[in-house]
Design goal:
7-stranded mixed beta sheet; 15 helices; 66% helix; 12% strand
C-alpha cells in the first residue's frame, strides 16, 4: 500500500511544480507579478488602437502595462488605467503620449514625468494624455486620397523604364551604348580627381576648405551680407529705402522713365550724345582729334617741345617750380602792400593820386591837341619874316 503511494506522490509533486512554473511564466509574460502595484489613470480623447497589455515606458524603460480601457459616457473621454511596478511622481510639465511601438504595428504609452525643478502634480488634477499621429496611418490616408495621381505617376515610371529598356533617352543610351557609358565613366573619374584635390587642399576651393582663416573670412562675409539683408528689410540704408520707401521708388521710377526718354532721343540723333552716336562726321572728327592727341602724347614721350621738356627734364621742372615759388612770393608781397607794385595795388591813397595824375596828363594832352593848329599857323606866318 505504501509502495503505491510513493509514485503517486512524486507525480503529484511534479504536476504541482509544473503548474506553478506555468503560472510563474504566465505572470512574467503578462506583467502580472507579486510585486506592489501602482495604478495610474489617464484620460485620452482617443487611444489610436491601444489595447490592454500594451507596455508603458519611461525614457525607453518599460515600467508597466495597460490594465484597462474604458469609455466614459458623461464626457466622451477614454479612461486608460495603467499599472506600474514602481511609484512615479508626475511634475507640472509632464507629457503622456500613445505612440507606435514598432514599424510593424502595436502601441506603447510613453510617459515623460517632467523636469525635477517643476512642482509636483497635485493628486486632484486629472491626468490627461494625447495620441500621437500614426505615420503609417497618415501615409495610408495620403495614398488613399491621391490614388489617381499615384496611378498616373506609376504609369509614367513604367513608360520611362520601357524607354530605358529600348535604349531611348540618356539613361537608355547609358545602358545600351558603351561609348556613352565610357564618357560618363571618364566624367566620374575627373570628378573623383577633383574631389580628391579638394580634400588635399589643392586649388582655390581646396584652399578654402582647408584654410580656417579663409573659411572664417567667408563666414564673416556671409554674416555681413545677412546683416545688410536685415537692414534692408528694416528699411535702413539706400537699398532698404528702395524696398520700403514708396516715394523714393516713385522718384526712381520717374528717373528710369526720363533715362528711357533720353536714350530714345540719343537713338534719334538728337542732342550732343545723339550726334556722337549717329553723326558720322562728328565721329570722324572725334577720331581725328584722338589721333592728334595720340601724336601729341607720342611727342611728349619722345621729349619733343617745351611741354615734353617740362615732363621729362627734371632740371627744367625744378626751375619751373622755383619760378612758380618766386611768383607766389612776389604775389604774397604784393598782397601785403610791399614794394611799388604792392603799394599801387593795395594803397588806396596812392591809387587815387595815380588816377588824378593820369587824368591831369590826359587833360594836358587834350589841351595841347586843341592848341596845335594855332601854333602851326603862327609858326608858318612868322616864318616868312
Amino acid at each position: 500500500m505504501n509502495k503505491r503511494k510513493g509514485p503517486e506522490l512524486l507525480v503529484g509533486i511534479l504536476f504541482l511544480g509544473s503548474l506553478g512554473a506555468l503560472i510563474l511564466f504566465t505572470a512574467i509574460l503578462t506583467g502580472v507579478g507579486i510585486s506592489e502595484r501602482h495604478p495610474i489613470s489617464v484620460t485620452f480623447d482617443q487611444v489610436a488602437g491601444l489595447e490592454r497589455g500594451d507596455p508603458v515606458r519611461v525614457g525607453g524603460l518599460q515600467i508597466g502595462r495597460v490594465d484597462d480601457i474604458d469609455w466614459r459616457a458623461e464626457d466622451g473621454m477614454l479612461l486608460v488605467v495603467m499599472v506600474l511596478d514602481r511609484p512615479l511622481t508626475l511634475r507640472s510639465d509632464y507629457a503622456i503620449r500613445i505612440e507606435d511601438a514598432t514599424m510593424l504595428g502595436g502601441k506603447v504609452v510613453t510617459i515623460e514625468p517632467g523636469t525635477p525643478s517643476a512642482p509636483p502634480l497635485s493628486s486632484e488634477v486629472t491626468v490627461q494624455g494625447t495620441a500621437a499621429k500614426s505615420v503609417f496611418r497618415t501615409i495610408g490616408r495620403l495614398v488613399e486620397d491621391n490614388q489617381d495621381n499615384l496611378t498616373r505617376s506609376l504609369d509614367g515610371i513604367r513608360d520611362i523604364v520601357e524607354q530605358v529598356a529600348q535604349g531611348r533617352g540618356t539613361l537608355g543610351k547609358l545602358t545600351r551604348e558603351p561609348e556613352v557609358a565610357d564618357k560618363l565613366a571618364s566624367l566620374l573619374g575627373r570628378l573623383d580627381t577633383l574631389a580628391r584635390d579638394l580634400l588635399e587642399g589643392k586649388g582655390i576651393l581646396g584652399g578654402l576648405l582647408r584654410d580656417d582663416e579663409s573659411w572664417q573670412t567667408i563666414r564673416g562675409t556671409l554674416a555681413d551680407i545677412r546683416e545688410i539683408g536685415a537692414r534692408a528689410a528694416r528699411g535702413e540704408g539706400t537699398v532698404g529705402k528702395l524696398l520700403q520707401d514708396d516715394e523714393l521708388y516713385t522718384n526712381l521710377n520717374a528717373a528710369s522713365g526720363s533715362l528711357a526718354s533720353i536714350l530714345e532721343r540719343v537713338e534719334r540723333g538728337e542732342g550732343t550724345a545723339g550726334r556722337f552716336v549717329t553723326d558720322v562726321e562728328l565721329y570722324d572728327n572725334l577720331v581725328a582729334s584722338a589721333g592728334r592727341f595720340r601724336s601729341l602724347t607720342a611727342k611728349l614721350d619722345e621729349g619733343d617741345g617745351p611741354l615734353a621738356v617740362l615732363l621729362n627734364d627734371t632740371e627744367a621742372a625744378a626751375n619751373l617750380g622755383k619760378a612758380l615759388a618766386d611768383l607766389r612770393a612776389v604775389m604774397e608781397k604784393v598782397r601785403s602792400g610791399e614794394g611799388s607794385l604792392g603799394r599801387i595795388i593795395m594803397d588806396d591813397e596812392l591809387v587815387d593820386k595815380v588816377v588824378a595824375a593820369v587824368t591831369s596828363l590826359a587833360s594836358a594832352i587834350e589841351d595841347a591837341r586843341e592848341t596845335a593848329p594855332i601854333n602851326t599857323f603862327t609858326q608858318a606866318l612868322f616864318s616868312v619874316f
